[in-house]
């Protein structure tokens, strides 16, 4: 989707470089279909790579039944070390009318490019969605709780992206807390200070929660915080003396550059 937005932007700016190019509307259905086909091919590539590397792949629901033991489909596997990499799922919208919204996982179920869309959230997923929807032709509005997007990023990044998004035509509603979403043909977003109408979709991207429920963590001595994230030390190891490592479910936000730095430190430790 990012590459599609890049191509759309290049087509629009090509006149400045001497190209007389018209910009047709994006074939949204075709774009989504080709994206899904690419992901399917990529999944097969990864699986083939695992198979060629002699990695045993067990498809099923895994659960810890001890510090060195995992149960998958009633099959018990024991190993000296276990990596926890269960990923996450979008945080549910916490306001009335949430049933009228979609989350970032449901985004690719949209059948047609929306003419007007609301993005609720200020993190990198919300920013990505807003950016490429705007470039592909949707009138895009963001509802953020603070003054700028990307609260956990460097100040220069936050300032630059917020101002550039507004310059590009994205409407950023600052200090906005959603009170409700309702449907009357189109969707209406009500905040604590105003009401905004005419949206085809309201996409909620306010964070993700770890998928740590029901997999035997606490019974195996793993400590979780109030967000159900695994409590780890700076090397992504558990604080307790358990032969477990954690990946993708840390207790606080970690950006990709920081995560890569942690990975390099781990390899060299």
Q: Termini, distance in Å?
A: 37 Å
State mean pLDDT (0 to 100 scale): 88
What fraction of the residues are assigned to beta strands by DSSP?
A: 15-25%
- Secondary structure: number of strands: 15
H/E element order: HHEEEEEEEHEHEEEEEEEH
The gross shape turns out to be globular
Structural class estimated from helices and strands: alpha/beta
Quaternary arrangement of the chains shown? single chain
Helix count from the secondary structure assignment: 5
Cα radius of gyration in angstroms:
22 Å
Largest sheet: 5 strands, parallel
Physical arrangement of strands within the biggest beta sheet:
6-13-7-8-9
Spans where pLDDT lies below 50 across 5 or more residues:
none
What fraction, in percent, of the residue positions are helical? 25-40%
Walk me through this protein's architecture.
By secondary structure, the protein is of the alpha/beta class. Helix content is 28%, strand content 23%. It contains 5 helices and 15 strands. It has a 5-stranded parallel beta sheet. It has a 3-stranded antiparallel beta sheet with strand order 1-2-3, with no helix packed on it. Strands 10-11-12 form a 3-stranded antiparallel beta sheet, with no helix packed on it. α1 crosses α3. The longest helix has 25 residues. The chain starts with a helix and ends with a helix.
């Amino acid at each position: 989707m990012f590459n599609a937005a890049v191509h759309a932007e290049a087509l629009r700016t090509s006149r400045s470089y001497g190209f007389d190019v018209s910009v047709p509307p994006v074939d949204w259905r075709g774009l989504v279909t080709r994206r899904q086909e690419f992901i399917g091919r990529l999944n097969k590539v990864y699986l083939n790579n695992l198979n060629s590397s002699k990695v045993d792949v067990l498809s099923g629901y895994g659960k810890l039944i001890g510090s060195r033991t995992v149960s998958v489909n009633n099959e018990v596997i024991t190993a000296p070390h276990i990596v926890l990499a269960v990923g996450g799922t979008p945080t549910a919208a916490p306001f009335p009318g949430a049933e009228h919204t979609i989350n970032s996982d449901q985004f690719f179920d949209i059948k047609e490019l929306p003419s007007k869309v609301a993005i609720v959230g200020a993190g990198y997923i919300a920013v990505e969605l807003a950016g490429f929807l705007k470039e592909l032709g949707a009138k895009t509005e963001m509802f953020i709780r603070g003054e700028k997007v990307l609260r956990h990023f460097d100040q220069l990044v936050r300032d630059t992206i917020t101002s550039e998004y507004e310059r590009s035509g994205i409407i950023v509603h600052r200090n906005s807390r959603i009170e409700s979403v309702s449907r009357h043909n189109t969707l209406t977003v009500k905040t604590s200070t105003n009401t905004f109408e005419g949206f085809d979709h309201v996409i909620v991207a306010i964070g993700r929660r770890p998928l740590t429920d029901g997999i035997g963590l606490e019974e195996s001595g793993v400590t979780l915080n109030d967000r159900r994230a695994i409590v780890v030390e700076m090397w992504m190891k558990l604080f307790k003396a358990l032969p477990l490592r954690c990946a993708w479910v840390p207790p606080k936000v970690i950006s990709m550059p920081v995560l890569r730095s942690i990975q390099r430190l781990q390899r060299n430790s």
